[in-house]
Amino acid sequence: MAKIDGAEVARHNTKKSCWLVLDSRVYDVTSFQSEHPGGTVILLKNAGTDATTEFKKYHPLTYVKQLPPGSDLGPIDPNTLAKLNKPKETTSSPVNEVDAENKIPHVSLCVSCPDFEKVAKSVLPHKSYIYASTSANYGLSLKGNLEDWGRITFRPRVLRNVGDVDASRKIFGHNSPYPFYISPMGTLGTINSEAELDVVRGAVKKGVHMVVSTASTRPTTQIADCHRAELQRHKGSPTRLFFQYYMPVDRTKAIELMHIVKEAGYKGLWITVDTPVLGKRTADRVLQAEEALAVGMHEEPTSTWETGDDDAFAPAMGGRPSAGQLSPHTTWEDLSWIRKEWDGPIVLKGVQCAEDAKLALEYGVDGILLSNHGGRQLHTAPSSLMTLLEIRTYCPEVIGRLEIFMDGGLRDGADVLKALCLGATAVGVGRPYMYALAAYGGKGVEKVTDILAEELTTGMRLLGITSLDQLKPEMVNASRLLNEMWRPDSFSVRSKL
């Protein structure tokens, strides 16, 4: 096959004809623009260029297999690479401009989880920070996540021997020194090329379990390989990997992905069920507009229902669907064929009411993750604590029969104890780990774990317990949340459930 001249590639730099180079091969992505998860703008920004480096920030290179047939035009002539265009600049500078000579604070100066966001904000590219921090609409779901932890207070006991404490907890039979785990985080490659592997390294070193995102930049198998290698380096580490699953619409691909995950050694399938469509992520919409203007797309977007085409203004980075996004047509009945293909633990990620918690039990899953997707999906969605209180009130039989996980807004290790008092198995932590990773790499992952662990064990002693099995509902006062919890109007919720 004849090699393609870089000058020829450079000429195809418009929406009507869009070529780019990936891993030394030329691809015509013109027909793919409407299907691209990140929208047209990012493709046009890189049209006529070697987009390999930018591509690898978001996807494994194997994703080129998802391009339409005929997209691969052949190899680029390496002697003509200088003739390619340079990528168009949009908004890539850090949120807070910092002098290159100024160093970030030493990691030891971060003594609580919120400290990492301040540092990360100063070093992350604008687009990456938007991805990490964005929330749905004008932020009330995220605000509720953060505030509800403080609306539950402890009822400590005194004069107890708390010299030695044991904070260990099992997740589906797998030991961990902590009742918290690292939540799934997508496209960490935008932070640095080693980011996802750094998380694995930090997790294994500290023994904390980790849920890996479908939207990871690194291939699922490569992350698992890194995990095995780290276990060899740190003998005795209990860290296990679980997999957060965005189900492909195509059932063949969905089954294929499950088999890849199983063969790679992941210990559980955490199916995301709160993304039939993506929520409105306001900061991403602003970023979309900025990027569209930067490549000369000045027209106001019309509504999708009017045109059937919103590809040019598809949500930027953090607001885009991942490859394999959960189909809006998926129902409870799909769990039957999923169970036939996956014989390990299944968790439904994104349960937000007592009715669905009971259905999860009836449909035979092994666990539920109470979550509103970090406040990024439904406007004014309930916090995971509010949902847990609903479950305790209206279908308490779920507690003890399913493993119950929670995430969203946790910033203090002591607050984990509140969730466990109310029946949770463990709590997921996401943004603090992402911010620490951005600022300090794997050392940041280790530091967040140490901070949460110290706050947790200090909280246990001050609460008057020495092991997590001593936690009881009466050790917390949740009356403020209970006063606002949903209640049936004039019917029996138990009969309705």
Automatic annotation (TrEMBL):
Regions annotated as coiled coil: none
FMN hydroxy acid dehydrogenase domain mapped to chain residues: 105-481
Protein name stated in the entry: Mitochondrial cytochrome-like protein b2
Keyword line: Oxidoreductase
Annotated InterPro entries: Aldolase_TIM, Cyt_B5-like_heme/steroid-bd, Cyt_B5-like_heme/steroid_sf, FMN-dep_DH, FMN_HAD, FMN_hydac_DH_AS, L-MDH/L-LDH_FMN-bd
Single GO molecular function: oxidoreductase activity
Cofactor or coenzyme needed: FMN
Keyword presence, NAD: no
Domain Cytochrome b5 heme-binding, residue spans: 1-77
Domain of life assignment: Eukaryota
